[in-house]
Design goal:
The protein is an all-alpha fold and about 190 residues long. The chain has helices at about 10-15, 20-45, 45-65, 75-105, 110-115, 120-140, 140-150, 160-165, 170-190. The chain has two domains: about 5-90, Rna Polymerase Sigma Factor, Chain: A; about 140-190, Winged helix-like DNA-binding domain superfamily/Winged helix DNA-binding domain (Arc Repressor Mutant, subunit A, Orthogonal Bundle). About 20% of the residues are buried.
């Protein structure tokens, strides 16, 4: 299909600013695979990548009136939205994982959280989840647990962990990945 002036990316965004749903549909069809692929590459999680895809086009719909073609192309704008959304999700995932790991390290924090205004149901859930995390950490090999503790509690990068332990970087990365996969599988089985 040849692009007509009414169907250029910029024209579609202008139409979206006027609440033209067909324009959104056309832009979505044109860029969904690019946006999904990028978000999947960043997040490495299909479900989260699909959510980012939806978020990007929802945000594009809401902010189409603010798009300025002088500042960049429509494709670049969508990719930037995608990258920002995906990185936000990665950061949120990291904070969530760090919170669970902190609870695993010190389950007594659960009562502090409950006393700080969390509902009794939330406190019970955190206490239960904390014990699940502690049990999941017990499944890891000592090497896996050690590198994960240095990464999450110590805040060390993979390179810093390798240097500190005197291990090859590839070995450290493998242990972290295998440890996280084991935790995901173990904690995932608790969610069922």
């Amino acid at each position: 299909m040849a692009l007509t002036i009414a169907n250029t990316d910029e024209a579609l965004i202008e139409r979206m600013a006027r609440q033209d749903q067909e324009a959104l549909s056309l832009l979505y069809d044109r860029y969904r695979s690019v946006i999904f692929s990028l978000s999947l590459r960043i997040l490495r999680d299909r479900a989260e990548a699909e959510e980012v895809l939806t978020d990007v086009f929802f945000q594009a719909w809401k902010s189409a009136g603010g798009f300025n073609s002088l500042r960049g192309s429509a494709a670049g704008w969508l990719v930037t939205l995608c990258r920002s959304r995906a990185i936000d999700r990665l950061r949120a995932r990291g904070r969530r994982d760090a919170s669970l790991a902190a609870l695993a390290a010190d389950p007594s924090q659960t009562s502090t959280l409950g006393a700080g205004g969390a509902s009794p149901e939330d406190a019970a859930y955190l206490s239960h989840r904390s014990s699940q995390v502690v049990a999941a950490l017990g499944v890891l090999t000592p090497e896996q647990r050690g590198v994960l503790e240095l990464a999450y509690y110590g805040g060390l990068s993979h390179s810093e962990i390798a240097e500190k332990l005197g291990e090859p970087l590839g070995t450290v990365k493998t242990r972290i990945r295998q440890g996280l996969l084991t935790l995901r599988e173990t904690l995932g089985s608790h969610d069922s």
